[in-house]
């Protein structure tokens, strides 16, 4: 959970968040490229979550497995949910929705790392 | 989405639906809090309820308030607006009351809720959110029949 993949996901999410917040501040609706970028971030998060899930299945010990699994599901669904809301909102608020979605991803990843570091072993 | 009509206004009219514009951003944020507060309470209540029953019941209550606010915003209309108005007001009172109580006397609240210390564990978003929510709902007063 605590590898370069997590760091890459956090950095990508933060960079995108700055971009979307800037777009929102400049009164721009999310464009096609913005949504593609959100899709790429979703894929990155999907890979991260898949790696963590495989780790769980192959015997990594996590103390609070229910919470960890809940966070995994939330994390993987999060950017697509923000993206879905943003598609329905072709205004600056759509860009803000994507921006806030990208700001929450690092929080979720850090929480996952926190929970994973408290091993049941 | 390609910009088909660049002259189209990017802001919505004031009487647009409660769940559009900034309302949709609020919907996402309230949804996040509905999920995180409820899930937290569920874990607390199901795994170690005896340790701090009052705090955990409060946690559950906070979760339900966020769920109600989310539903109200998503539903819109006069009913949705009323649900959102009531739940945002409870949320404001709750975060101020619990925030003050936990700062003054932490004995009664040995374990944290979303509203403990004015939501400091959640970047103080729980403190700011009801103000934004109430302002948004207030701005969406239904038009009087003319």
TrEMBL record, chain A:
Membrane spanning stretches: 6-23, 35-56, 68-86, 93-112
Domain of life where this protein originates: Bacteria
Alphabetical UniProt keywords: Membrane, Transmembrane, Transmembrane helix
Protein name: Integral membrane protein
The species this protein was found in: Actinoplanes couchii
From TrEMBL, chain B:
Alphabetically ordered keywords of this record: Membrane, Transmembrane, Transmembrane helix
Transmembrane portions of the chain: 21-42, 54-75, 82-101, 121-138
Record protein name field: Membrane protein
Source organism of this protein record: Actinoplanes couchii
Lineage of origin: Bacteria, Bacillati, Actinomycetota, Actinomycetes, Micromonosporales
């Amino acid at each position: 959970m605590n590898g370069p993949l997590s760091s890459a996901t956090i950095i990508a999410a933060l960079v995108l968040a700055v971009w979307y917040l800037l777009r929102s501040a400049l009164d721009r609706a999310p464009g096609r490229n913005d949504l593609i970028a959100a899709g790429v971030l979703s894929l990155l998060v999907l890979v991260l979550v898949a790696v963590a899930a495989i780790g769980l299945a192959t015997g990594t010990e996590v103390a609070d497995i229910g919470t960890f699994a809940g966070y995994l599901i939330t994390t993987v669904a999060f950017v697509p949910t923000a993206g879905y809301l943003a598609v329905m909102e072709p205004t600056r608020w759509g860009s803000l929705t994507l921006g806030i979605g990208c700001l929450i991803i690092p929080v979720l990843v850090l929480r996952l790392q926190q929970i994973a570091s408290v091993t049941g072993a | 989405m390609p910009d088909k009509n660049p002259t189209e206004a990017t802001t919505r009219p004031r009487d647009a639906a409660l769940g559009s514009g900034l309302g949709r951003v609020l919907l996402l944020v309230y949804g996040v809090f509905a999920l995180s507060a409820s899930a937290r309470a569920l874990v607390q209540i199901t795994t170690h309820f005896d340790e701090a029953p009052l705090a955990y019941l409060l946690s559950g209550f906070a979760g339900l308030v966020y769920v109600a606010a989310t539903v109200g915003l998503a539903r819109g209309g006069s009913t949705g607006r009323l649900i959102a108005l009531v739940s945002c007001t409870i949320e404001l009172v709750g975060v101020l009351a619990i925030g003050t109580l936990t700062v003054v006397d932490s004995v009664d609240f040995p374990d944290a809720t979303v509203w403990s210390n004015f939501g400091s564990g959640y970047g103080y978003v729980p403190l700011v959110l009801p103000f934004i929510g109430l302002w948004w709902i207030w701005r969406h007063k239904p038009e009087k029949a003319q």
